[in-house]
Design a protein that fits this description.
By secondary structure, the chain is mainly α. The chain folds into 3 domains: 154 residues, MgtE N-terminal fold, CATH 1.25.60; 119 residues, CBS-domain; 170 residues, Tetracycline Repressor, domain 2. Helices cover 64% and strands 6% of the residues. The chain has 23 helices and 6 strands. The protein has a 3-stranded mixed beta sheet with strand order 1-2-3. It has a 3-stranded mixed beta sheet with strand order 4-5-6. Helix 13 links the parallel strand 1 and strand 2. Helix 17 packs parallel to helix 23 and helix 21 runs antiparallel to helix 22. The N terminus is likely disordered.
C-alpha cells in the first residue's frame, strides 16, 4: 500500500477525530508508524498519528513490540497525556511510566481526573509514589493521597472529587450563573447535586431540568429527592451492579457520616463491568488475568499454580481407578467406557458452575433464594441424568450386546449428573460464604468431584453387579 494511503484524510479536523473503522490501526498503518519511529522521522510519526483519538493512540502502543514503545513515546511526547494513559492497558502503561521521571508523571497526573490519576500512581513503587506526590500541586496531592487511603477497587478509588453541589434554597438562575462564573468548576458532569448545610446530598437536578426551568424557580421545586448513594468503601463490582440495576448516569459517593465526597460516572462503570466480566471468565479457566501484555513470568506463575492443583486432582481420580484394576482387567469395556461418565459429568458440572458464578456476581443468587436454586439444579440434574443415562445405556447394549453393562453405565451417568449439578451450585455458594472468590477455585473442585465420582460410581457399580468378560 502506498504511503499516501496510510495517512489520514486531509479533511480530518484534529487529533480527536476517529479514523474510519476500516482504516483505524490496520496492520499497514501500524507498520508505517513503526518504520518512521525506527527511522527517526518524528514529523512523519506525528503526521500519521495526528488524526487518532486518545483511545486509539493507547491501542497503538499496545499493538507494537515492547522494544518500540519507548521510542514511540519519545516521538509522541506532546501527545502522551492523561487522556492517552487513562485508556492504556495497565501493563503497557506501567512500562511507559517507568521511563518517565516523577515530574513528568506528576504533570500528566495533574491533568487527569482523580480516579484516572490514582490508577496510574497506585501501581508505582512506594518511593516513586512519594516522588510523584511531592511534585504535584497541593490540592491534587491531597485528593490523590485521600483516594489512595481507601481500599483497592472501592468506590473511594473510583470516584471523582470534582463535582457540582448547590443548596436547595437557590434558584435555577443562581445555579446557571454559578456554573457560568466558576472557571475552576469541573466541565464533565450530567447532574447537579443538591446538599443541605452539612453537605449531605438530599437530591439531584439533571442538567436538562436546569436548562428548561425558569430562572426564578427554586431548586427544591425541580430537584429529584430520590437518589442512589454509593458508600465510599463499597466494592467497585457492587457499584457497577447498582449502576446497571438502576440505569444510572452518575451517582453521589458519601463518606461514613453521609457527607458528599465525590461522584462516579457511567464511563468509569463501563470499564469496571468489562474488567469484572473478563476477570471472572479467565479465573474460571485458571488463566489468571489473561492479558497478552502481561510479563511472561507472571503468566507462567499464575497458570502453573492451578495446573499443579489440577495435577493433584487428576492423581486423586487416577487413584480411584487404581482401586478397580482387577475389574478392569476382567472386562476391558470398562476402561473404554469410564471416561464417558467422568467427561459428561464434568461438562454438566461446568454448565451449572458457570451459571452459579454469574448469578453470584450479579446478585441474582442470594441467601434468600439459595434453597430454591439448589432444588432447581437438582431437578435439572435428574432430568439430564435420566436422558443421558437412557441414551448411553441403549447405545452400550447395542454395541456390546450386554444389557447389564448398559444398565450399570446408565445408573452411573445418573449418579454423576446429580453430583455434577449439586457440586456445581454448592461449591461456588460455599466458597462465597467463606469469602473466597468462587470464580477462582470452583472449577478445580467441581472437576475433582465429577471425575472421582464418575469413576467411582461406574466402576463401583460394575463391581457390585459382578460384571466380567
Amino acid at each position: 500500500m502506498s504511503e499516501s494511503n496510510l495517512e489520514a484524510p486531509a479533511a480530518a479536523p484534529g487529533p480527536q477525530t476517529r479514523l474510519d473503522e476500516d482504516d483505524r490501526l490496520r496492520p499497514e498503518f501500524v507498520r508505517a508508524v513503526v518504520e518512521r519511529v525506527e527511522a527517526g522521522d518524528i514529523e512523519g510519526v506525528h503526521e500519521l498519528v495526528a488524526p487518532l483519538h486518545p483511545a486509539d493512540i493507547a491501542d497503538l502502543f499496545e499493538l507494537i513490540d515492547s522494544d518500540d514503545r519507548r521510542a514511540l513515546a519519545a516521538a509522541l511526547a506532546d501527545k502522551l497525556d492523561g487522556d492517552v494513559l487513562a485508556e492504556m492497558n495497565e501493563h503497557v502503561r506501567e512500562e511507559l511510566i517507568d521511563a518517565l521521571d516523577p515530574h513528568q508523571v506528576a504533570q500528566i497526573a495533574g491533568e487527569m481526573e482523580t480516579d484516572d490519576a490514582v490508577a496510574i500512581i497506585e501501581d508505582m513503587e512506594e518511593d516513586e509514589q512519594r516522588a510523584v506526590l511531592r511534585a504535584l500541586d497541593p490540592d491534587d496531592r491531597a485528593a490523590i493521597e485521600e483516594a489512595l487511603a481507601y481500599p483497592e477497587e472501592s468506590a473511594g478509588r473510583l470516584m471523582q472529587r470534582d463535582l457540582i453541589a448547590v443548596p436547595e434554597h437557590w434558584t435555577v438562575g443562581q445555579v446557571i450563573d454559578y456554573l457560568r462564573a466558576g472557571d475552576d468548576l469541573t466541565t464533565d458532569f450530567w447532574e447537579v447535586f443538591v446538599v443541605d448545610p452539612q453537605h449531605h446530598p438530599i437530591g439531584t437536578c439533571m442538567l436538562s431540568w436546569v436548562l428548561r426551568a425558569r430562572r426564578g424557580v427554586r431548586v427544591a421545586d425541580v430537584m429529584k429527592r430520590e437518589q442512589t448513594l454509593i458508600p465510599i468503601d463499597m466494592d467497585q463490582e457492587e457499584v457497577a451492579l447498582r449502576f446497571q440495576k438502576y440505569a444510572l448516569i452518575s451517582a453521589a459517593v458519601v463518606d461514613h457520616s453521609g457527607r458528599l465526597v465525590g461522584m462516579i460516572t457511567v464511563d468509569d462503570i463501563v470499564h469496571i463491568i468489562q474488567e469484572e466480566a473478563s476477570e471472572d471468565v479467565l479465573l474460571l479457566s485458571g488463566a489468571g488475568e489473561g492479558d497478552i501484555n502481561e510479563p511472561i513470568w507472571e503468566t507462567v506463575r499464575r497458570r502453573l499454580t492451578w495446573l499443579v492443583v489440577n495435577l493433584g486432582t487428576a492423581i486423586l481420580a487416577a487413584s480411584v481407578v487404581g482401586l478397580f484394576q482387577g475389574e478392569i482387567s476382567r472386562l476391558v469395556a470398562l476402561a473404554v467406557l469410564m471416561p464417558i461418565v467422568a467427561g459428561m459429568g464434568g461438562n454438566a458440572g461446568t454448565q451449572t458452575m458457570a451459571v452459579t458464578v454469574r448469578a453470584l456476581a450479579t446478585n441474582q443468587l442470594t441467601s434468600s433464594n439459595t434453597r430454591r436454586m439448589i432444588f432447581r439444579e437438582f431437578r435439572i440434574a435428574v432430568s439430564n441424568g435420566l436422558a443421558l443415562g437412557l441414551l448411553i445405556g441403549l447405545g452400550v447394549w447395542l454395541v456390546f450386546g450386554r444389557a447389564d453393562l448398559g444398565t450399570v453405565i446408565a445408573l452411573a451417568m445418573l449418579i454423576n449428573n446429580l453430583v455434577a449439578g449439586l457440586s456445581g451450585i454448592l461449591i461456588p455458594v460455599t466458597l462465597e460464604k467463606l469469602n473466597i472468590d468462587p470464580a477462582v477455585s470452583s472449577a478445580v473442585f467441581v472437576t475433582m468431584m465429577t471425575d472421582v465420582m464418575g469413576f467411582f460410581s461406574f466402576l463401583g457399580l460394575a463391581t457390585l453387579w459382578g460384571l466380567h468378560g
